[in-house]
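REQUEST
  id: r-88c1
  op: predict_structure
  target: Tissue inhibitor of metalloproteinase
  payload:
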Amino acid sequence: MKRCWWWLLGIAVLFCLYGGARTYACSCVPPRSPSEEFTKSDAVFSGKVVRIYETTRKEPEIGERVSQHAVIFSVDRTWKGVNETHVVVYTGFSEAACGYPFEAGKEYLVYAYDDTDWVTGICSLTKPLSLAKLDIEAFGKGTPPTQHVAAEELKEDRLNPFLPYMIVICVIGFVVILYVVQTRLQK
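RESPONSE
  id: r-88c1
  status: 200
  body:
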């Protein structure tokens, strides 16, 4: 029984050494005017959310992979930066991570910036299209996108490549622990 405690203590130490996932909080500067946001953004377009899926991507600012939502838009009008009929925009997993709460089937005016992918969040002036009348008046009617891209062509393969290995290691560890405990209890 004493050895069992040593095993449990060893496992607890390993968990402590691993640490935990880092957490980040969202803090936004006061909102800018639509013309200021237009100037600061790399892309401005309106479109309908076709699909939302969970993924991970490397965040350039912190150099780590983070969970995010990938939002596929069918682009209706573009003012800047986007010329494709369908684009993927990444946003934080929750509002606490600055993620914009997009809903499938709804239309939005999106202000995005380019950090190797299109990214937006609650700190931008991204909003439902029904609330974007003043923005659109300031920018004009925009133009329809000219480069056809099918939504199916957009990549969804951004899952952590080590995830299957981590799951296998955890399962093996759990089986070993059960085996050790079982043999100790039988003695």
